[in-house]
Amino acid sequence: MTNNPDRPLHLRIALENDIAIGPGKADLLEGIRDTGSIAAAGRQMGMSYKRAWSLIEAMNTAFSQPVIETARGGSARGGARLTPTGETVLATYRHMMRAAESAIAPDVEILQSLLDPDQRKRENFD
Amino acid sequence: MTNNPDRPLHLRIALENDIAIGPGKADLLEGIRDTGSIAAAGRQMGMSYKRAWSLIEAMNTAFSQPVIETARGGSARGGARLTPTGETVLATYRHMMRAAESAIAPDVEILQSLLDPDQRKRENFD
User: Fold this and answer.
1) Extents of the domains making up chain B
2) Residue in A68, A89, A111, A122 to test binding to B, most B beta-carbons within 10 Å
């Protein structure tokens, strides 16, 4: 797994019903909200349509209500938008991230302070 | 990645120096503290000695001080203990987990409340 420097915290929460919500599902929901399409949302994450759909299906199965709705009569691969449940899942995950980031900030400071400053300097000049 | 039901939160933090601390490195440090051996700590996690050593080496490189010290003249695969830096990294990660768990508890409640209760029941009776 690669570390995204813009997102130092990677947080995944396992819920009941054998479902976990992490950055992948959250980004996918956000992409669908922004593009109106499962295929386009997957594409901008470098994810196959099949993979994107399987993540959506896992959420649709686990939650009482589906997380997205697709346009009737539309292309099978287009016309998707978040349901109220999908919006809530996304907003709750984003809020959770911010809450966790604030809560762990002092500990992150401690860990950063233990890092080798020489190595840090070297990285910056590479 | 599997979900450990006893540990619903999976938290990994990327620091500078291209190092990330997550449950794997934390558990490994704890195992070394408890067993006094890299090999034994790796074994109880189902991790090869090579893999365990590479995680330790990544930490030893990134931090100013090594995270473990090995006994002089002892077996190459035995006699390891945490340094003060190793103890601090472990304790800070554990504290970070508890702080994040508390901070996200209300959001976890919201997500749990959206789950399909029928499916939850089914899982429980399987």
Assistant:
1) 13-125
2) A111
Min Cα separation A80/chain B (Å): 20
Which candidate from A21, A61, A117 shows the least CB-CB separation from B119?
A61
In 3-state terms, what secondary structure has residue B13? Answer: strand
Query: How far, in Å, CA of A9 to CA of A25, rounded?
Result: 15
Round to whole Å and give the CA distance between A25 and A30.
9
B22 near A10, Cβ under 8 Å? yes
ipTM, interface predicted TM-score of the complex: 0.87
Give per-residue pLDDT as tens, A42-79.
Answer: 999 999 999 999 999 999 999 999 999 987 655 555 58
Q: Calculate how close chain B gets to A103, using CA atoms only, in Å.
A: 6
The CATH number of domain A13-125 is 1.10.10.10? yes
For residue B47, what are the CA distances in angstroms to A55, A126, B67, B93?
Answer: 29, 33, 18, 20
Of A8, A15, A61, the CB nearest to B13: A8
